[in-house]
Write a structure and sequence with these properties.
It catalyses: prephenate + NAD(+) = 3-(4-hydroxyphenyl)pyruvate + CO2 + NADH. Pathway: Amino-acid biosynthesis; L-tyrosine biosynthesis; (4-hydroxyphenyl)pyruvate from prephenate (NAD(+) route): step 1/1. Its EC number is 1.3.1.12. It comes from Kribbella deserti. By secondary structure, the protein is of the alpha/beta class. The chain has 13 helices and eleven strands. The strands form two sheets. Strands 2-1-3-4-5-6-7 form a seven-stranded mixed β-sheet, with helices on both faces. The protein has a four-stranded antiparallel β-sheet with strand order 9-10-8-11, with helices on one face. Strand 6, helix 5 and strand 7 (about 165) form a beta-alpha-beta unit. Helix 3 (about 65-80) crosses helix 4 (about 95-100). Bound molecules: nicotinamide-adenine-dinucleotide and prephenic acid.
Length: about 350
């Protein structure tokens, strides 16, 4: 470790590039900012993601531009540098390798990577220094890479706060089709049915629809490039979903279809619990307790104090709050053995609690 000295040149200073600059800046790594759009680089500099002074050979180049441009920018950066290790943050890993390979003979200084953290927002002003803290960052070396080059990119990701996972380019693209690209398409399709919904229907929106539609807000131009670049893997998954949709439609049309509906829903439960929890840890068996919380200052602090008094350790929490309502709901995740005592103490102290 500690081979990352900088400077790091970030090409593409939008959400991801600016966040990388901010994250590296926390540990004093010098970051140089380049963007085809001068305004984007200026904004990134203003929020403290680095400087637009790009003189000299960088130690590392991070290419954080939209997927259609990644390969060409990698090739251009390899040509513009002599020793720098070049990586990219593109959401699909086979396309940059093919695109850059068509433009240069030597890809030994290029190591692919992909931070598995982001947002539905774009541009430098959406950048956050803590975006990658605890997130997974995929490293996808190819045959021509030297181990030291791969190690340097691993160190870059870890300096940004992430934990790294190494996998092949092909395996990466299959994995993200499942855990990122298909979920995005499903979110967009579900949100699309709201386009012509009457306001009186939308008024009933609760946390469920907010959870399902958040990522649908992502930039459609960026996501078109992402899903087009991963079409083969996505096609296989979409065909599977089409089969499940047909099964659901047939079951809904039958008087005795509830068994098959339950089977499809059970399948969802089984899949959902396989999603790893925070920091890449396995999904825990924590139990959840829901507590109604009045929208008044100090209530959250009081709830935590009362939970602590029961002896329960709060492993995680989520707050659902609808603007305009005088009450919200807090979901406390605790060890199953703590639930009974937690519910007893909170109820005694006046909280409305649901298991
Ligand atoms: N948005 C996410 O959640 C997310 C997460 C992980 C990885 N990624 C990947 O990271 C990359 C960047 O995504 P983003 O969300 O930061 O996009 P963004 O739109 O916020 O920023 C992209 C930036 O690249 C610049 N740019 C475009 N073409 C360029 C070129 N030829 N040379 C230099 N600059 C150029 C744009 O001006 C823009 O400032 C994409 O490849 C994306 O697939 C995105
Ligand atoms: O949190 C989000 O908004 C994201 O969609 C981030 C997300 C993901 O699917 O996890 C989106 C695309 C990227 O390539 C990596 C991360």
């Amino acid at each position: 470790m500690n081979n990352l000295k900088g400077p790091v040149r970030v090409v593409g200073t939008g959400l991801i590039g600016a966040s990388i600059g901010l994250a590296l800046g926390r540990l004093g790594v010098t970051v140089h900012l380049v963007d085809a759009d001068a305004e984007s680089a200026l904004m990134a500099e203003r929020i403290g993601a680095g400087s637009r002074d790009v003189a000299g050979e960088p130690q590392v180049v991070v290419v954080a531009v939209p997927p259609d441009h990644v390969g060409a920018v990698i090739a251009a950066q390899l040509a513009a540098t002599t020793s720098a290790i070049v990586t990219d943050t593109g959401s699909v890993k086979s396309k940059p390798l093919v695109d850059a390979g068509a433009l240069t003979d030597d890809l030994s200084r290029y190591v692919g990577s992909h931070p598995m953290a982001g947002s539905e927002r774009s541009g430098p002003l959406a950048g956050r220094a803590d975006l990658f803290d605890g997130a997974t960052w995929a490293i996808t070396p190819h045959e021509g890479n030297r181990p030291e080059a791969v190690e340097l990119i691993r160190e870059l990701a870890e300096t940004c706060g992430a934990r790294t996972v190494e996998l092949s380019v092909q395996d990466h693209d299959l994995a993200v089709a499942r855990v990122s690209h298909l979920p995005h398409l499903m979110s967009a399709l579900a949100a699309g049915t709201l386009v012509d919904a009457p306001a009186s229907h939308l008024e009933l929106s609760g946390q469920g629809v907010r959870d399902v539609t958040r990522i649908a807000g992502g930039d459609p131009r960026l996501w078109t490039q992402i899903v087009a670049a991963n079409a083969p893997a996505l096609t296989t998954l979409l065909e599977r979903i089409r089969g499940d949709l047909d099964r659901m439609l047939i079951a809904l049309g039958k008087d005795d279809g509830s068994g098959d509906i339950t089977n499809l829903l059970m399948n969802g439960v089984t899949g959902a619990v396989r999603v790893p929890g925070k920091h890449g840890a396995p999904h825990t068996d924590d139990a959840t307790v829901l507590v109604n919380i009045p929208d008044r200052p100090g209530q959250l602090a009081k709830l935590f104090a009362d939970a602590a008094a029961s002896g329960a350790n709060v492993e995680d929490l989520r707050i659902d709050h609808s603007p305009g309502l005088a009450i919200g709901q807090v979901e406390l995740a605790v060890k199953p053995a703590s639930v009974d005592q937690l519910v007893k103490v909170l109820t005694e102290r006046g909280w409305v609690v649901h298991r």
